[in-house]
Amino acid sequence: MRLFHFLCLITCISVSAQEAPDPNQLFRDGVQAFYDAKPKESVTAFDKLIAISPESKPQLWQRGLSLYYAGDYKGGREQFETHQTVNTADVENAAWHFICVARAESVEAARKALIPIEGDTRVPMKQVHQLFGGKASVEDVLKAAEFGEGEDLKNHRCYAHLYLGLYFEALGDEAKAREHMVKAARDYRMNHYMGKCAQVHVKLRGW
């Protein structure tokens, strides 16, 4: 009888170990759900990851994107503010924070809360940050993106139109948001995370 109980205990421990969530798999699940244009499911996966690994939260900027598309703008704002504590030189974090605040409150509030960024040398992120802060124009962003050649040039254009699309969505100008986002998703299609983001955006908006 004791042997039976011992074997049962070993079996239970083995099953529990097998059933224990894998943080890496939860991250992959969150990413894949986002790529599949299922932002709520993506947030759920990332939240499960945070539940078993709370220290991972500041790194999960991907969760912020999913929160935005799930319509949780306050949650998105909080995620990007948390990410800022571990990544201080990323214009993209400031831009996503901006659009979350704009959707939750107003464009004026978003400009006042715009996260200052120094040191992001990627094309055309300096101009993107200036645009969101009201210190540059759409033309400035597009002009800055015309740098390089081949895949580099295509990538710069993808980023420019992605953030112009997001900018106009924050402003409530659907026509211009659609114009730019479709270019990022199709004309300058890229398969990295932000390129996929443009594609997800177009799909979710029915464009």
Descriptive keywords:
207 residues, 12 helices, mainly alpha, single chain, 73% helix
Explain how this protein is built.
The structure is a single chain. This protein is an all-alpha fold and 207 residues long. It has a domain at 118-207. 73% of the residues lie in helices and 0% in strands. The chain is built from twelve helices and no strands. The protein has helices at 2-19, 23-35, 39-52, 61-69, 73-84, 91-104, 107-112, 125-132, 138-145, 150-171, 174-187, 193-205. Helix 5 runs antiparallel to helix 6 and helix 8 (125-132) packs antiparallel against helix 9 (138-145). The longest helix is centred in the last third of the chain and has 22 residues, at 150-171. The N and C termini lie far apart (66 Å). Residues 1-17 have low confidence and may be disordered.
Q: What would you say about this model in short?
A:
The chain is 73% helix and 0% strand. The chain contains 12 helices and no strands. The protein is globular and about 55 Å long.
Number of helices: 12
Mean residue pLDDT: 93
Percent helix among the residues? Answer: over 70%
Our estimate of the beta-strand percent is: under 5%
Number of strands: 0
Largest sheet: none
Structural class, from secondary structure content? mainly alpha
The secondary-structure element order is HHHHHHHHHHHH
Shape: globular
N→C terminal distance: 66 Å
How would the blueprint of this fold be written?
Blueprint: H1 2-19, H2 23-35, H3 39-52, H4 61-69, H5 73-84, H6 91-104, H7 107-112, H8 125-132, H9 138-145, H10 150-171, H11 174-187, H12 193-205
